[in-house]
Amino acid sequence: MKLWTRREDARLLTGHGRYVADLVVPGCLDAAFVRSRVAHGLIREVDCSAAREVPGVVGAWSAADLSELPVCANEAAHLQDLPPVPRTMLAKLSTEDAVNGREWPSLAKDRVRYAGEAVAVVLGEDRYRAEDGAAEVTYRIDPLPAVVTPAAGAADSVSLFDGLSNVAFRGTAGEPIEEVVWRRAAAVVEARYRQQLLLPTPMECRTILAVPEDGRLTVWSGHQMPHRLRLELAKSLGWPAERVRVVVPDTGGAFGSKSATFPEYVAVVFLAVKLGRPVRWIEDRMESMSVATRGRGQDQRVRLAADEDGRLLAYELEIDADVGAYPHLGVGLPMQTAWMATGPYMTPRVHATVRSVLTNTMVTYPYRGAGRPEATAALERSMDVLARRLGLDPAELRRRNLIPPESFPYQTPTGRRYDSGNYAAALELALETIGYDAWRAEQARRRARPDALPLGIGLACYVERSGGEPGGLHDFAGVEADEDGAIIAHCGAASSGQSHETTFPALVARTLGVDEYRVRLVEGDTDAQPEGLGSFASRSAQVDGAALQNAALLFAERARERAAELWGVPVEEVEWSGGTLYPVRDGSAGMDLTELVKATGPLRVHERFESGMGFPFGAHAAVAEIDTELGVVRVLRLVAVDDSGVVLDPAVVRGQAFGSAVQGIGQALYEGIPYGEDGVPLMANGLLDYLVPTASEIPPIEIKDTCTPSPSTPLGAKGAGESGCIGSPAAIVNAVADALQIADPDLLQMPLTPDVVWRAARAPKYEEA
Amino acid sequence: MNITLTVNGDDYPLDVEPRRVLADALREDCGLTGTHLGCEHGVCGACTVLVDGEAVRACLMLAVQCDGAAVRTVEGLAGPDGEPHPLQRAFSAEHALQCGFCTPGFLMIAAGALESIGDDPELVDRLVESNICRCTGYEPIRRAIMRAATDCPPASDRSPTSEGS
Ligand code: FES
Ligand code: FES
């Protein structure tokens, strides 16, 4: 009898999980960073001398001090200066052009460009000593005016990099739309939306532990892409990749935010190698809130046109993206929004333009949804305004425009080729589940009674992309059997809470027809699995799942070949069934895999597997009532219908959909980073200022699914887990707009705090406009 | 300062600085890393442990304050024979954890109150509202605590059942 639902549970529920901060390495030093209190300024002086006198402090360095650091370890002899932060090459998240002339030093040298940027690092015998030392470091920074919004940045009156524009990247998707299209349309909606900056906030902050040993370096990190981290760190050190081993132990959530090589990681690794001692950095929450990567951050301007029957004619989306102070990690990220601008509709003309602007804020990087929530929110909010303008029910307007099932694969005007879908089915299921007609009746009833709280119903249809971008749609997987007959599955993914240890062995076991517990998963260790891409873009099931299925099928094939050779029969006469090989003809007893391996040696299959892009989709619906006196939004119901193609483990996927919907509620109603004019985030009270939803903010949420397999892999899985962040914010804001009947959509910008809602409740309504 | 922490029934004589927080003493000095730090400023509750039966934020309490006190951490939740606590079974059964980082805090805050919950869903709501989980959306945690409170009262030392498999 199985004691635990997931294999992970046995250790995670008993206090025996191993996160990086739990690892004990004798003699390990703790790093603490000294961080700039100003967002933009010129560094005049950093003085670490007092810090070095603090008992238990092993060293304290500014960027300038580090180049004078004597070399203790031979292998670091050529390492003079602290290497800069590498750029993201994957998925066009950064470009050569954008980073040229804009170096991101791992410790700021001459200038700081965001509040919290590190100007010195202190190593102590433990965290207490390191922080004692950090408190003694003094610095002088002459402040420069800070650029806090994309609009201010684009004006270029203050440059973050002398002689270079703050506009670090421009991109387009689709063709420009002629004026005549707008002129002739029956209705044109124009609006501006702000997709606020968010903190991904995994409950475990960032972690790294670097252990130099025997000319190699082992790096432990809570990370989504161990192989990328290995490659980038090795490059920074000027080492071949094989000299670095990255191991990902238990990871306390990531949501996209733990897949890069961050400045602190470079500094820690550099110091570990230079000193020849283990060094770790365990980020704390206050630090994370000021310097971990942010998500979203777009100012959008849209135009949406339709004919009198509500058929969409054209959609235009202009994005000014706030990409933060350095273009290295996410300058190209807003293109994910541009490429997905078409959404789930048959709009013939779609044009999206991106301007990525540097500002004095910490860098923007993928956060759960990564570009698709921004695309969905802009389009879906505009759809609701359009429906009102045309006097159509918002559900009906969507029905008339959704791409029909027979049109797949569907080539969008913004360059995507959607794989498969039945968008209308998802919408109908969402309407039915929430009880759409009954809520409309309730709304009418309340509108007739002036004392009733206004109630609104909001919809959002979405389509998103999973798996990655061309060039990054593959991964590596293997299936092995050793002489004891145990089956080991390998893949390049890395779990940060997605139950890989349970679901992947189950998939391999299903494919091979063996007992689930005969299969064990190895991932997240670059020595055990030399090549891999990782877990991002909702790709683990879609790409690694399909890769494992493929490897398992090949494994059974190889086993048959071996048995055929052993028995001297053609391979067609050997059957694989439930882990045993049978000669088809003579009907004799079969040979178990264990015996085969004993007789012929270990059997190993390792393969690179290429997936296509997946396009998960769905429809979310929300009902909200508003206390107009207090400006409080009460979400009464939230329904999320998602289609992730073939699902490996329904309970796991439902769990992620639920958690993701709650993060979507967070964006819609609570989360945001207020910045002062000086560019310093106003979050002195930590998680009391940045409001991630707690259990008291959770409405009744119902998760449903439809299943349209993806033709992109034989497994048919599409990405899962990001849907709630994509569909729910727009549905909730639409519900509030519907309740308040506001004429000007621009008045409702997320998060819908009581202040925003109270004001919107007093603004002109659309009948009166 | 010399103190003795009694953690899960074992004595740990320690020499700690007065400023050392309980969570660090448990994690670094006692080697009990099941207690996690998610914010270090008292909001998230990942560090929740029981001190003399009361749930406390171990990041807001000094180790010296617990001299002589009985501390219970997630490592001490299972029975002496290793039999999982009803809460551990229920959390697994209800998928009340994903990454598991917040989990010890939720388990301990529930363990401290389990016997007084009875089948009062409001009390369970209040408990779940005390801590932060970024993965699950809370509903599975609420269900798990309800399940443990109603199905498996901790007083009755039940043998393993098939529930939760
Ligand atoms: S770590 Fe103690 S409450 Fe968050
Ligand atoms: S399970 Fe990850 S934070 Fe709760």
UniProtKB/TrEMBL annotation, chain A:
Q: Domain Aldehyde oxidase/xanthine dehydrogenase a/b hammerhead, which positions?
A: 14-145
Q: Keywords assigned by UniProt?
A: Molybdenum, Oxidoreductase
Q: Which residues form the signal peptide?
A: none
- Superkingdom as given in the UniProt entry: Bacteria
Q: Which cofactor does it need?
A: Mo-molybdopterin cytosine dinucleotide
Q: Which SMART domains match?
A: Ald_Xan_dh_C
Q: Which SUPFAM superfamilies match?
A: CO dehydrogenase molybdoprotein N-domain-like, Molybdenum cofactor-binding domain
Protein name stated in the entry: Aldehyde dehydrogenase
Which species does this protein come from?
Acrocarpospora corrugata
UniProtKB/TrEMBL annotation, chain B:
Question: Which GO molecular-function terms appear in the entry?
Answer: 2 iron, 2 sulfur cluster binding; metal ion binding; oxidoreductase activity
Pfam families tied to this protein: Fer2 (PF00111), Fer2_2 (PF01799)
Instruction: Please state every residue range assigned to the domain named 2Fe-2S ferredoxin-type.
Output: 1-77
The family database entries (PROSITE patterns) matched by this protein are listed as:
2FE2S_FER_1, 2FE2S_FER_2
Named in its record, the pathway it takes part in is:
Alkaloid degradation; nicotine degradation
| Record key words, sorted | 2Fe-2S, Iron, Iron-sulfur, Metal-binding, Oxidoreductase
Q: Which domain of life is it from?
A: Bacteria
Q: Kindly give the SUPFAM superfamilies that the UniProt entry links to this protein.
A: 2Fe-2S ferredoxin-like (SSF54292), CO dehydrogenase ISP C-domain like (SSF47741)
Q: What is this protein called?
A: (2Fe-2S)-binding protein
Species, as recorded = Acrocarpospora corrugata
Q: Print the organism lineage.
A: Bacteria, Bacillati, Actinomycetota, Actinomycetes, Streptosporangiales
